[in-house]
Design goal:
Length: about 280
């Protein structure tokens, strides 16, 4: 697993027990053994299993952890998706961080899957940079587990010329020209955000790679699709609610970006239920 993910897990465990688990360390004797089940409490798509394995490994101790599903698979309400058996101290100390990650990532994967299921024609659902600070790598993986596609990971990945850039530079044409000149010889895509037909026509005449149709009506987006005639890749963005996905994707855009996949998602309800506690 990437070092970045391992760092997230270590920081999360440090945050949760900076000087140890004062309850577990004082109540549970060494050698005490337990068995617990990860149980889905609603239908959804699971994501974060590999991260959970790393949490337990980071906590340490003797345990056996196994899952009956993999990241990206569907789960049902009341389904047992995994089991952990071993040192009670290990299970208790890993419990909350494991569930926080598993629930959050599974919620994102489940939400993404719902959007993907609404797609028509040859269109993809994209995520955005509207992620929880320092958790982007996990949240973007969850989007993929849900069937979505990752947009740029960070500001270093591609050129995305938005309204503030255009205003600062002077025009779409000049902004694209500068971007292409400054990145010459480097494989970096250039995307331009437009809000009306005049801006779209200006962007279409530039050597940009992608045009983002931001906060447009369906009628205006359809006009852009027709005028584009497959010259550029088109991305629909802004107020892309679940109820709009089917009709927007049917217009002929290549991508639909949805910030709600990560910025306001509901975690999937998953519990860790202790089945037995016994001393060695």
């Amino acid at each position: 697993m990437e070092n970045e993910v391992l760092d997230i897990i270590k920081r999360a465990l440090k945050e949760d027990m900076p000087t140890g688990d004062i309850t577990t360390d004082n109540l549970i004797p060494e050698g005490h053994q337990s068995k617990a089940y990860f149980i889905a409490k609603e239908d959804g798509i699971v994501s974060g299993i590999e991260a959970v394995k790393e949490v337990f490994q980071a906590v340490g101790g003797k345990y056996l952890l196994s899952f009956t599903v993999q990241d990206g698979e569907s789960v049902k309400n009341k389904q047992v998706i995994g089991t952990v058996e071993g040192d009670t101290k290990t299970i208790l100390k890993a419990e909350r961080v494991s569930l926080n990650i598993l629930q959050r990532m599974s919620g994102i994967a489940t939400t993404t899957h719902a959007y993907v299921a609404k797609l028509q024609e040859n269109c993809k659902i994209l995520d955005t940079r509207k992620t929880t600070p320092n958790l982007r790598i996990l949240e973007k993986k969850a989007v993929v587990d849900g069937g979505g596609t990752n947009h740029r990971y960070c500001l270093s990945d591609m050129v995305m010329i938005k309204d503030n850039h255009i205003e600062a530079v002077g025009s779409i044409t000049k902004a694209v020209q500068l971007a292409k000149e400054k990145t010459k010889g480097v494989k970096i895509e250039v995307e331009v955000e437009v809000e009306n037909m005049d801006q779209f026509e200006e962007a279409l005449a530039t050597p940009c790679d992608i045009i983002m149709l931001d906060n447009m009506s369906n009628e205006m987006m359809l006009a852009c699709v027709k005028k584009n005639n497959h010259k550029k890749l088109l991305e629909a963005s802004g107020n892309m609610t679940l109820s709009r996905i089917a009709e927007v994707s049917a217009l002929g855009v290549d991508y639909i970006s949805v910030g709600a996949l990560t910025h306001s998602v509901k975690s999937l309800d998953i519990s860790l239920k202790f089945h037995l506690l016994e001393k060695n």
